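Support reply, case 0932

Customer input (verbatim):
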Amino acid sequence: MGNLATIDIIIFLIYFVVVAGYGIWIYNKKKSAATGSKDYFLAEGSLTWWAIGASLIASNISAEQFIGMSGEGFFVGIAVAAYEWLAAIALIIIAVWFIPIYLKNKIYTMPQFLETRYNKSVSLIMAIFWLFLYVIVNLTSILYLGALAIDTLLGGDNLHIIMIGLLLMALLIGLGGMKVIGYTDVIQVAVLIIGGFATVYMALQIVDQRINGAAVGNAFAGFQTLINEAPQHFKLILDKPTTTTTTLAMPENLSVQKYVVLPGLAMYFAGQWIVNLNYWGCNQYITQRALGADLKTARTGILFAGFLKLFMPIIVMLPGIAAYVLYSKGHLPGFNGVKDGAYSAILGFLPTGLKGLAVAALTAAIVASLAGKVNSISTIFTLDIYKKYLKPDATEIQMVRTGRWAIIIAMFVALAFTWTDVLGIGGEGGFTFIQKYTGFISPGVFAMFLLGMFWKRTTGTAALVGVLLGFLLAIFFNSFAVDIFGKETWLYTAFTYEKLENGVVHTITEIPFLINMGWSFFFTVVVMVLISLAGPKVNPKAFAIDSTMFKVDSRTLAMIVVTVLLLTALYVRFW
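Our regenerated output:
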C-alpha cells in the first residue's frame, strides 16, 4: 500500500470488511424475499427516505467531484460550487414537480417514460444513447480519476492494479442489485462525509501552520487565511473578461480560461439549470433510487439529498482552494500545478491514521458511483432493450441474470477505455470533461422531458427531432459557430486563449460550453413547439396532470424553506 502506514491499512480494511459484510448480509436477507426483476433493479418499496437520500449523494459524489471539482476549486475557486448549490434547488423542483409524474404513471426507467409519452423509436434511440454515455463517458471518468487519485496518494506505479481493485469492489456490490447498493450507500456516504470533513479540517490547519507560522494549526484561522490570500477564489460570479483574445504572456489569459468554464452571471440564465435539472430529473442513474418508493418517501429522500448538497463544496471544493494557496506560496514542492492533482497533493499532508480514512472516503465515493452507474446500465439494457427487443418472453430469472452480465460487460468496456486514458480525460480536466461531453445531449434530452411532462401538445415527431437537433446544435455551437458567425454576436461571445500542455502551447477559440447548452436548449424548444403546433391540441399519449399531484405537506415545505434560506445566505455572503 505504498505510502500508507499499518494503521492506515487497518482503517481501510475495516471500511472494506464493513461495507462488504453489510452488503452480503443485505443480499442474503433479500434472497428470502421476492427476487423479481423490479426488486433487483429498483429495490421496489424497500428503501427508506434516508437510504434514498444517502444513495443519491453517494452515487453523485465520486471521483469527478473529489478530484475534478477540487481541481476546479484550485483553478477557479468557489464559483464552481454553483454546480452543487444549484443542485439543491434542482432537487426541490424534481421532488415537487417531476417525481409525482413518474410515480403516478408507474415509470421505472427513463426510456420507458419516452415510450409511454412518445413512441418506441424515441425510447430506443435514447436507451442506446444513455448506455453509450454511461459506459464511455461516466464509467470511464469515474474509474480513471478515482484510480489516479488513489495511485498518486500511494506513491504511484499502481494505477492498473487500483483500477482492477475498484472494479472488483463495485462488482461485489453492484451484482447484488439496487437494494444492496441503496443500503451500502448509507455506509459509503457516512465514510465519505466523515473522511471528507476530516481532510478539510486538517487541510485548513496545515494552511494556518504553513502560511501563518502557527505551531498548532487552527482550522478557522486557516479558512480566513484562504479568503485573505485568494480573495478572487471566493467570488461566486466571475466577471466577464474585457478582452476576447489573450496569450500566455497576458495576465488576462487565465481569466479567460476561467470564464470559459464558468461564464459568470450568464451561466445562471443558460446551461447551469439544464445541467442540474437534466442530471437530477431525467437521469436513470439518479432517479432510479426514488422510482421504487411511494411519493412521500421519495420526496423526503430527494429533499434530504438536496440539503446535504449544500455542504458538499466544503468537502470537494475547499481542498482545491487550500492547495492553490499553499502552491502559490511554495508549500507544495512536489505538486506540478495540474489542477486534477490538487486533491491528492493535499492528502499527502495527512498524518498517519487520517490518511487511511481519507483513502477509505475516496474509495467509498468511487465504488458507490461505479456500482450505481452499472446498475442503471443493466436496468436500461435489460428492461428497455433485452426484454422488449431481444427476448420478449424472458422470465424474471433470465432478466436478473442478463442484468448481471450487463454489469460485468460494462465494467470490462470501461476498463479497456481507461487502461491508457484513450479519451484523454486527464488532459481535459475530469470535472470539465464530464460536464462538457454530457452537455452535447443534455439540451435535447431535457427539452424532450420538460415539454413531454408539462405540455400536452408535444408530439413524438417533435421529441425525435428535438433530441437529434439538440445534439447537432451543441456540436454546431461548440465546433462551427465561431468560424461561420465570428467571435462576437448577440447570441454569444467567443474567446481565444493560449494553453500550455506538456510543453506545447495550444491556441484555443471557443464559446463557453454552458452558453452553448443554453442556446441549444432554447432553439430546440422553439423547433419542438413549432412542430407540435401542427399536431392535435392534446396529444393522445399526454400525461394526465392535476394540481393535487404537486401539493406538499408541512414537513416537506419546512425542508424546502430551510434549504432555500441556507442557499440564499451562501449567495449573499459570497456573491
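We compared this against your earlier run and they match. Two observations from our side: The chain is about 70% helix and 0% strand. The longest helix spans residues 354-390. Please reopen the case if you see a mismatch on your end.
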